[in-house]
Amino acid sequence: MARARSRYAPDRGLTGRMVGTMFFIGLLYVVLVGVLLAVLQGSWLVVLVVVGGMFVAQFWFSDRIAAYGMGAREVSPQEAPELHGAIDRICALADMPKPRVAIARSDVPNAFATGRSEKTALVCATTGLLRRLEPDELEGVLAHEMSHVAHRDVAVMTIASFLGVLAGIITRIALWGGFARNSRGNDPAGALLMLIPLISAVVYALSFLLTRLLSRYRELSADRTAALLTGRPSSLASALTKISGQMARIPTEDLRKAEPYNAFYFVPAFSARESLGRLLSTHPTLEQRLDQLARISSGLSRP
């Protein structure tokens, strides 16, 4: 018998965006594979096996790779009683199975969730986050991350980001492989080969925009549903303000190491001076997030 849905408020806007993103990503995927099959006609089996194998590997192992890359280490209740206790309370409040719990040894104050489903989910907090936040602020951040698990948008982001990675790899291989040199003259095959880096670049750009739009909305959705679940939007707002303010004090080298994983983090690892990075950020601005939480707080205080 299937388990009932969690007590996190459903978000039809997020569901619609996830379905739309996957639909358009699927179309782009078909276009990219179609171009490869048309150009590399004699190697269609190799193309299908390689692309299919990479997709399966990305789907099954990307969450583990991401967790490993961010330094997550599973901890027992005896090793991290406060962190386990906070997640236990959220799970009881949300009526959700408990995810695996991990800590990453990093002074960058952050948290993230990975996993294809509730059964494989992992929620991780950094040592920098645990050291800086009060218990109610920590619960707000963890409730935000558990919302990603409940809404399954972590799995969608994992799949959606794969096509952009694949297209980027194909573009670099095409350019490094000297397709442009092979296309000199009036050779029709050479002209077709030139389509590979061009189509791949277009696919990469479109998939990048799609995942960024979905990512920004899902962060607002997680803030909203976490605030409604805990009934303490002010605690989440306090955590957001504190973490964002501390981020500019973190050494640039540490921020650059964390930057590739910004799509998973509670707050993106950008310094205050990186305006371009903020423009292309996976997250909405701090002001947008705080404004939403202020409106929720106002609504909850009404009789």
Automatic annotation (TrEMBL):
Binds 1 zinc ion per subunit. It is found in: Cell membrane. Its cofactor is Zn(2+). InterPro entries: HtpX_protease, Pept_M48_protease_HtpX, Peptidase_M48. GO terms for molecular function: metalloendopeptidase activity; zinc ion binding. It holds the Pfam family Peptidase_M48. It is a multi-pass membrane protein. GO terms for biological process: proteolysis. It is an enzyme of class 3 (hydrolase). The chain crosses the membrane at residues 21-38, 44-61, 154-179, 191-214. Zn(2+) binds at residues 144, 148, 219. Residues 77-295 form the Peptidase M48 domain. The active site is at 145. The keyword Repeat does not apply. Keywords: Cell membrane, Hydrolase, Membrane, Metal-binding, Metalloprotease, Protease, Transmembrane, Transmembrane helix, Zinc. GO terms for cellular component: plasma membrane. Its EC number is 3.4.24.-. Belongs to the peptidase M48B family. This is Protease HtpX homolog. It comes from Streptomyces nitrosporeus.
